[in-house]
Structure formats: structure tokens, C-alpha cells
Amino acid sequence: MSNIDLVRMGIKNLWRRKLRTFLTVLGVMIGTSSIVVMLSLGFGLSESFTEQISQWGSLTTINVYKRWQDPSMPKQKESKLDETAVLAFKAIPNVEAVSPTLETYGTIKTGRYVANVPIKGIVPEAMEAFGFEVQEGRLLNDNDELTILFGGGMSNNFYDPKSRVWREPKIDLMKDRFTFTFDQDMGYNYGGGMGNEKPNYKEYKIKVAGVLTEGNWETNYGVYMPLREVQKLMVEKAKAEDPKSRPSKETEYEQINVKVNDMKNVQAVQDAIKDLGHEAYSLNDQLESMKKTAGTIQMVLGGIGAVSLIVAAIGITNTMVMSIYERTKEIGVMKVIGASIKDIKRLFLLESTMIGIIGGVFGVALSYILSFFVNKFSGVFGDFLGTGGESKISIIPIWLIFAATAFSALIGILSGYFPAKRAMNLSALEAIRTE
Amino acid sequence: MDDLIVLKNLRKIYKMGDEKIVALDDINLNIGKEEFLCLLGTSGSGKSTLLNMMAGLEKPTRGEIIVNKLHLERMNEKDLTNYRQRYIGFVFQSYNLISTLSALENVSLGLIFKGIPKSKREKMAKTMLINVGLGNRLHHKPSEMSGGQQQRVSIARAFVGDPSIVFADEPTGNLDTKTTFEIMNLITSMAKESNQTLIIVTHDTEISVYANRIVYMRDGNIEKIVANEKAEGEVV
Predict the structure, then answer these.
(1) pLDDT value, residue A28
(2) Would residue B211 count as lying in a domain?
(3) Chain A residues with CB inside 8 Å of B77's CB?
(4) Which in A113, A178, A416, B232 has the greatest CB count within 10 A?
(5) Does B87 touch chain A if contact means CB atoms closer than 8 Å?
(6) How far does Cα A374 stand from its chain's mean position?
(7) Domain segments of chain A: what residues?
């Protein structure tokens, strides 16, 4: 019996009992869509966790710190964040860029406005790799001297110290002239402190290279400068505070940032860095645990959804068994006029599989509709649940569509197996005699 | 004359609870090619059981069934399916047409299992239905046809695959006298035309006169075999 005839016959048989086929298909549809929608909620949850965390900073950046030396464990490797460490990090596979950072605090002034800001030193050529983007101007380059890059949210950090109420400062970050000093009190007139002699900080004229796009909380409220320049400034700061101080020959960094090419490699790189004896953190740590939570919730939801698919599977079996009772005589006749038991088995399996596939396809379509409505009203729910309005509550990945359809087809095959076996084993003679 | 079917010491016992019923006792029979044989007997004589065994629908308790040198008693279900597809056609008393299929579809059903493509099998089925005089009933469902017409469809179904042997189990049992003769004339002429062996089971002596040989059966044994010289031609 050729496949095309088999399919033709199967469709005909299903079509013969339209209502029953429809109801069985409906069962599978509801079963499939309940699983898909439940799982999609899990994916949505996981996605919104990722989104939340990515607001805190880049997910592919690892921050490396010096490890605290435990005196009780003297054999620990010494953790030294110097050029050697930078080179070692660069050698780790999947590392895209490495940038040591230094951070110091100071005041930036323009006109009557001032801002107290962290000044972050960064290696200019690594900026692009670390995902810095400008909304105006350009990124830093190696030749920049006393040149800064403003964080995306910086314009709101300026204030007028003489004003009692905060007003939005009228500043053009690109065009106005800015000066920088380590003097945190600049702008305030304390008029000679409490006998403390104030260090005589220099005031620097600074150039602005550009303004970063408004991104995450990490970059919004900082000012970036080439690392070399920050080092220079810090030396001068130390001199101003204590003229006798000598800058140490070897530069050690407070922190080294390592950029990994893909999120899935972050864990491995992080482990490698820890093996070198340093302390390493990434947002991946939080993300992992949150994703685990999301996964558990998803499993529970999927399990609830699966119950209805099991019920649907029983429905298919029931339909097929009923169908065999009705068609007993027909099966007998087919056997006598030359149908092999294999043909009979294939026919019944095909019918149940078709119920599964049709139910699966329409079930997926139904889940899209449900998912659409869930997301449409997610603004209301999202705020309520605290997942934020940005991300969708229900996400159906493409692979899930195929997986769900394949799974419902499999359910069809499994539920048809027992009835098909029954049909196969019917005695042709007895089958013919039934009325 | 070559023997197409050879039955040796054939025995069949049914178990009904604790009771054993001997359906066939000890049957020895040779049936030649292109022969028209009639198994005649009352109900319970074992004639239907014998027919079913030759069609490969039942297994003997003991003995041999050799058709065209093939031992049916040794075949598994798959081989029996092949045997049925290649060698036999079957006409039932109660027609056994599939009620949801049209006459054309019923006739071509057997060809589907043989794997014959759609256009070819529909052509074959159509030719066969025209041969049995139902050229204007191709797309009628069984419920829209008379008993005689339904049996014609059933005959068309049995003959469409050009089998070597056609079995008919009380083919006229449900029909009136006039239709009985029509059907018998049809079935015999068709078998003769394509040189097929025809084996009919009946309790009706009027039908047996069509046959070359009449096998009288009683209580699972062959009582007597009568050759019928005048059987040739149609009975009016």
C-alpha cells in the first residue's frame, strides 16, 4: 500500500466522523497550547530577569578585584593586578578585551554649575569592545590629553551650589567649557576650614570628546578618561596632598575589567580568572541563580500544562478504540481482500498521528493568540508583578513551535499504538461476522 | 490435469469451552485448474470451514493445504496476506461492501493494498463494474443499491485483481430466485472467461448444477463427489 493512498484513506476516515475528529483535535489543541503558553511564561520570566540585570551593567563584563589574602592560608597565590595580570587575562580564550580601570573623585565645573563625579580611567582602544557608544562626539583615543567622555545621564548631575532649589541645568555638554579639580568643595565657600590646611589642588582645563548614549546604571553617571591621564592626575593629587610622597614605580590597578565575547562563555572565563588567584564578579552570577528560579517556575507551569495534554492523549486513544469497534467489519473485509496487518496498523497509527499533528498545529496557533493577549495586558499585570513593562510576559521561541508540534505528533503515535495493535490482531473471520 | 489445490488429511477441531467440535474430520481433495467446484451441504457440514481454510483465513488443526505448491498451513500472517493478494478473490453471502465507499472505491480497495496507482486502479475498477453491468452505478454507495447490485459490486471486487481462484460463500443466499440466476450466470461466465478456478459453497442444489463437480459434505467429511457433465453453458 503506497503512502499517498494511506494518507488519502486516513484523511477520508477522519473526515467521515467530522464531529468526533474535531472534538478530539480540540482536546489536543487545548493540551498543546496549555503547555506552550505555560512554557512561554517561563521564557518571558527568564527574559525579563535578563533584562533587569542588564540594566545594572553589561552581562559580558567580568570585574576582577584583588583577592584578600587570608593569613591562615599562606599558600594562596598572590593576587596582583598589574600589567602581567592584564596580559594573562588577554590570553584566556573568548576574552575580547581587557581594560584596567582606575577611579578617582573630583569636581567638574562649568559656569555656575558644578558636579561631583567619579572619574574613571579606561584604556581607550578597549572602549568599543566594552560596548561604549556615543550619542554625540566620539569615543576617546590614545592621544587625548585631559579629555573626558561624559556618561549619558551626566547633564542632570550638574547643579548650582548657590541655588536653593534644583533646576534643570542649562548646559551643553559638548560646547561649554569645563574645568576639573580634585577639590571636592569647589563652588562652596566654606572660607577656610576648621584650621585644616587645604591641599592646594590644581585646576585643569578639560576637553570633551563626547557624550555616551544613555545606557545602564554603571555608565550613566560617570566621566571617562584615558587610563594614562587618570594615572597622571592621581600622581599629582598625591603630590598636592603630601609633597613628599613618591609615586611607586609599579602601577597596580584597583580593578580590571574583562570583556567576554559571548554570554555563554562568561562562566568559564570567570573561573579561569579565579584560578589565577583573583576575585572575579560578573552579573552572570546573579543571572544564573535568577534563571534557575525561572527554570523551576517554568517546570511547574509546564507540568500543569502537561496534564491537559495527557488528558488529550487519552482522548485520542478513546477515539481510536471507538473507531475500531465501529469499523471491525471493515477491518475484516480489508484483511480478506488483501490488506496486510502492517497496512492496518499503519492506517490506524496514521489516523491518530494526524489527530496529534493537526491538534498540535492549531494548538500552536491558539497559543500565539493567547500569548498575544497575555502580552497585550502585560502592561497592567507587569507593573503589578514587578517585572517591568518593557519585556513581554509570554515569549514563544521558534524551536518551541516545532517541538510542540513534534511532541503532539508523538503523543498521537503513542495513543494510537494500543488501538492499532488491537485492530491488527482482530481475526478476519470473526471481524467479518460482526454486524 | 494439473491440480491447483491439494488437500491432505485435513482436520479442524474447534474448542468451545470444554467441548470439542469436529468441523472437519479427514478431508482429502484435489481441485484442478479452471475447475468449477461446488461444496454442497447443510449448515454445520464443514463446507464453510473448508472454504475459509483454502482462502488462508483459518489454520487447520492437522493436515496440509497446498495451493500452487505453496503450503498454506506453514505460512505466517505476512505470507498469507501475499497469498490472498496474488491468488484469491472472495465473494460473501452478505456482500460485505464498505458502506462509506462508493461502488468504484469498493472495487478498487483491494488494488490499493496491492500498491496499484490511483489512475490505473480506477480504470480497472471501472472496466470491471461495466462488465458486471453497473456502468451507471459507479458512484453509488452500497445503501443506494439493491441486493443484486451490491452482490455484483462484490463480484467485481473479487475479480478485479485477476485472481487464480475465486471463492464464493453462499453468494446467492440473500437473493431472490431471479437474481440468483443472474448472479450465478455472471459469476460462472466471468470465471470461465479468464480461466479462473471457482469454488462455491452452497446448500442450494439448484446452484450446484452450474458446477463441474459437486462435493457433498456431511459432518466434516466428504460424502460423495459427483461429476456434472452437463454443467457447461448457462442455465436459463
Answers:
(1) 94
(2) yes
(3) 340-341
(4) A416
(5) no
(6) 21
(7) 3-54+288-433, 61-261
